[in-house]
Amino acid sequence: MTRESVAVPCHLQINGQDYSADLPPSVTLLDLLRERLDLTGTKKGCDHGQCGACTVLVDGKRVKSCLILAVSIPDATVTTIEGIAQDGRLHPMQQAFIDADAFQCGYCTPGQIMSAIALLEESHVHSRAEIREFMSGNLCRCGAYNGIIDAIERVVSQQHRNQAGEAA
Amino acid sequence: MRSFSYSRPTSFEEACRNAGHTRFLAGGTNLIDLMKSDVERPAHVIDIKSLPMHHIADRPDGGLHLGALVTNADTAAHPLVVERYPLLASAILAGASPQIRNMATNGGNLNQRTRCHYFYDPAMACNKRSPGTGCAARGGRNRIMAVLGTSDACIATFPSDMCIALAALNATINLHGPDGERTVGVRDYHCLPGDTPWRDNILQPGEIVTAIDLPPAPFGPHHTYLKVRDRLSFAFAIVSVAVGLCMKDGRIERGSIALGGMGTKPWCVPHAEALLEDQLPSHSLFRDVAERLLHGAVADRDNTAKIRLAPRVIERALWQAAIGTPQSQTDKAIR
């Protein structure tokens, strides 16, 4: 059974670029990114909000793009894994994931990195236990969790060093 | 997902004009999931996020007003919630994941549907999803199912953590519908399944939750949200307990307690809470409270363990509250 669905205007800013189109309301943000904009860095894992592979930032907050209708976030700012490197340099979190051996197959990695970037903004990084708890929305079937926490701790200490440097 | 039409009204009048088979969309964490699973099949989705329900504000009685569209994450992190309602913040942080809490709203939390596996699978019999088809959870794999408030028609567990704290806090739910506004106590908001398990709550067609009002909660440090589950994070409760105690000089003046993971709705027994009035904390008192709370619990097949586990979780939670050492949702050790 198919029903007529009227396309709805959708305006977003994605990785700094304006995007406008009329979309069927059933298109999720995840499917918009992957299927229509070729931004395939954001992964589809469970497609039910359980695995975190589809994590992106919407207006700076980490969310699961598989459970968001693209038309339901008018004028939002969306940041995906493709939008975090600057001037050809990896984001410090991306570099830390490489340095700390924080992935094996890599499928969950974009979601882990986006989630970890938001985690630092939220300041839930006071202990390993806190990092674990606040990264619980991102599953890693390879079990690279220790490496992932190591990577996040590296970026936290880098930030502390930078802040200390600025203070001195 | 089946196709549907979509609108985003900016007034209650427009939103509540319920035309045919519609669903209200807020955070979407439950509705979109259910639509993907073909459990929910709305012809029309009304996005209510443009309605003015985004604020947390003081109330004249010293309580707090929580807008229905404030996210769970923003509610748990709000300075007034952290200061006055740490029990609520704790219960919210015990549920879901950071990403889900960034999306999910307070109104949506009240209206989320059961996570019964049989409800989620359109191939299975389920009176809640498809009235009259039977209950495959009965006699099925049912260790997560409810043991309190069940009926022949349905043993689906009510899933929320936040609502268990709201029940202990005796919150009031504000509604706006085609016939105007009304309020209802949170303990009367959800329905027992009885022989109408498809009715989760008392919402009428076209009616929207606009806010949750919290009365003052003078518990100080004497509260806890203790949640026991299959994995330490991002899992629904097997048993959870929200407790708030008003204490003076080591004595309990009165107490409030609600169970999650056990019932077909947030489970409260005023008769059990009454036992706490003007008593010193003791093992025998807390055992009696647990016994009254669990009176009438019935296991089906795999969920007998809940009935054996629950008294221990209830007693531990009451001690945590009495001593003033609420359960940490980061350090998972239960002390």
Automatic annotation (TrEMBL), chain A:
Keywords: 2Fe-2S, Iron, Iron-sulfur, Metal-binding, Oxidoreductase. The keyword Iron-sulfur applies. GO terms for molecular function: 2 iron, 2 sulfur cluster binding; metal ion binding; oxidoreductase activity, acting on the aldehyde or oxo group of donors. InterPro entries: 2Fe-2S-bd, 2Fe-2S-bd_dom_sf, 2Fe-2S_ferredoxin-like_sf, 2Fe-2S_ferredoxin-type, 2Fe2S_fd_BS, Aldehyde_Oxdr_Iron-Sulfur, Beta-grasp_dom_sf. Residues 8-84 form the 2Fe-2S ferredoxin-type domain. This is (2Fe-2S)-binding protein.
Automatic annotation (TrEMBL), chain B:
Pfam families: CO_deh_flav_C (PF03450), FAD_binding_5 (PF00941). Residues 1-219 form the FAD-binding PCMH-type domain. Keywords: FAD, Flavoprotein. Transmembrane segments: none annotated. One of its GO terms (molecular function) is oxidoreductase activity. Coiled coil: none annotated. This is FAD-binding molybdopterin dehydrogenase.
